[in-house]
Specification:
Number of strands: 21
Number of domains: 3
Shape: globular
Strand content: 15-25%
Distance between the termini: 47 Å
CATH topology of the largest domain: Dimethylsulfoxide Reductase, domain 2
CATH architecture of the largest domain: 3-Layer(aba) Sandwich
Number of helices: 19
Length: 539
């Protein structure tokens, strides 16, 4: 994303996890950190309890971190750009922005300043529901305490304006000069293990490894030389959220799904199921028989993390070794061995003697991984970018300059969520995760102890809404949106905000994503999982 492309475009933290403890202010938004990233949340809590850091929490739910927060703002769903713009309006008005950093390391400030003029505390309160006094106090707290770290997760990105939300957080951090320093930065938390590594290795439709654009002829030429091929395509592929509609229309005939369970995790599941069933041929490669694998023509069993050698790249860009602890069962193979065999059978021979040899090739074709080898990872991980074999790695990004030189301020207006409530669907739904279950439950729901803690789906509602709809704790209720309907137990909770219900998306027998909206962010292609309109129906 312009000046911060290498970090934010890939969803990577600009700073390290340990570095959070050196912040004077930590702003957490769109992240139920204690449940979704419990290890990382310990760093946040330690910074507050033992190092005197101040926590700003911005979340519509009364999550666990509210107990540690010095300021907790409770915005209406999908209004992130508005409250971020409001904070910046106040900071500029009070003259608390970092003028030296802005002058020396950024561009586009005057345009941003002009855009922010209308985002007065009173105007922002009308959009977000955040009292203007609280917004002013929060802006002062963030601006007057440096360094300040921003932490966010999918509560920021899973909107039709997710890209705008991320750019706005980058604006806020640059405005106060909090980038390129210990204790500062903009730090997105990855939702699953090695998502960072998958993106680093080209798991996006328009890039090779290391976010090198397929449209760049020089990069294609370099890749062709290393791989011994010709005529690599300059045409980007499709995002996942584009693939399923094309499958539904019959434009995509076959699909190969590795380690993903879209029959629980995709938005508007009824449509997703129809799309998968329109395929002529579906292959699923996984460690368990998932809801998606049940639909497959062929299921390929692959080894789990404890059964293979390799590397993971975690949320802080640290590349770490993974070592085999046990042998995989039966005829189970490593993912890379399965892919290589299929490629060879299809006419393109892929023959690597080991995972270490794959890392050697990665270092040849990926500038940010050029200095990485198994030998160097023997005892400790290394943060990319690591451009050569003597480079120590880069724990903190942008210390001297941004990827493109100057960082760019983006002048962004607030856009409401794609779906609004009305008389028929009077409540907003937001979705998320629980501490005791993970993603679609592929692994955690095989564990009795975890299932005892979180055995079934529920709909979390406020005391006020439970009275309004005459619902009792534990009774079953149907939740319906414009796309589908599920049944869940009522959970009356102080976490919930009136007018908004929360449902965890883990449960395949009551999948929240039958309800969610598949409207996409136009840049990232991410669906608006975090906001849709629903109604409650008594069973």
């Amino acid at each position: 994303m312009a000046g911060l492309a290498a970090a934010f475009g890939s969803g990577a933290m600009t700073n390290t996890i340990a570095d959070i403890e050196t912040a004077k202010v930590i702003l957490v938004t769109g992240s139920n950190t204690t449940e979704n990233h419990p290890v990382l949340s310990a760093f946040v809590k330690r910074a507050i309890k033992f190092r005197g850091a101040k926590l700003i929490l911005i979340d519509p739910r009364r999550i666990k971190l509210t107990e540690f927060a010095h300021k907790w703002l409770r915005p209406n769903l999908g209004t992130d750009v508005a409250w971020i713009n409001g904070l910046m309006h106040i900071i500029i008005k009070e003259g608390l922005h970092d003028k030296t950093f802005i002058e020396n390391r950024t561009e586009g400030f005057e345009e941003l300043k002009q855009k922010l003029e209308k985002y007065t505390p009173e105007y922002v309160e009308k959009i977000t529901g955040i009292p203007s006094e609280d917004l002013i106090e929060t802006a002062m707290l963030y601006a007057e305490n440096k360094p300040a770290s921003i932490i966010y997760c999918m509560g920021i990105t899973q909107h039709t304006t997710g890209t705008d939300n991320v750019k706005s957080l980058a604006n806020l951090s640059m405005l106060c000069g909090n980038l390129g320093m210990a204790g500062g930065g903009v730090n997105p938390l990855r939702g699953q293990n090695n998502v960072q590594g998958a993106c680093d290795m080209g798991g996006l439709p328009d890039v090779f490894t290391g976010y090198q654009k397929v449209a760049d002829s020089e990069i294609r030429k370099r890749m062709e030389e290393v791989w011994g091929v010709t005529d690599l395509s300059e045409k980007p592929g499709l995002k996942v959220t584009q693939m399923l509609p094309e499958a539904h229309e019959g434009k995509i005939k076959a699909m190969y799904i590795i380690g993903e369970n879209p029959m629980v995790s995709d938005a508007d599941l009824n449509h997703a199921e129809k799309s998968l069933k329109h395929l002529d041929f579906l292959v699923v490669q996984d460690i368990f028989m998932t809801e998606t694998a049940v639909l497959a023509d062929v299921v390929l069993p692959s080894s789990c993390f404890a059964e293979k050698e390799g590397t993971f790249s975690n949320t802080e860009r640290r590349i770490q070794r993974v070592r085999k602890g046990v042998e995989p069962p039966g005829q189970v193979l490593d993912d890379w061995k399965i892919v290589c065999r299929i490629s060879t059978l299809m006419g393109h021979a892929m023959d690597y003697p080991s995972s270490a040899s794959i890392m050697e090739e990665i270092s040849k074709v990926t500038p940010s991984y050029a200095g990485i080898s198994y030998d160097r990872l023997e005892n400790n991980g290394i943060h990319w970018p690591c451009p050569n074999s003597t480079h120590p790695g880069t724990p903190i990004l942008h210390t001297e300059k941004f990827t493109r030189g100057n960082g760019v301020f983006h002048s962004i207006d607030y856009i409401p969520p794609a779906e609004q409530t009305d008389e028929e669907y009077p409540l907003y739904l937001t979705t998320g995760r629980l501490l005791y279950q993970y993603h679609t439950g592929t692994m955690t729901m095989k564990t009795d102890g975890l299932n005892e803690r979180a055995p079934e789906c529920f709909v979390e509602i406020s005391q006020e809404d439970s009275g309004k709809y005459a619902l009792k704790n534990g009774e079953l209720v149907d939740i319906a949106s414009r796309r589908g309907q599920i049944r869940a137990a009522v959970n009356i909770s102080t976490k919930a905000s009136s007018g908004t219900v929360f449902i965890p998306f883990h449960y395949g027998n009551s999948p929240a994503n039958k309800l969610t909206n598949s409207a996409l962010d136009p840049v990232s292609g991410i669906p608006e999982f975090k906001v849709c309109a629903v109604k409650l129906l008594r069973v």
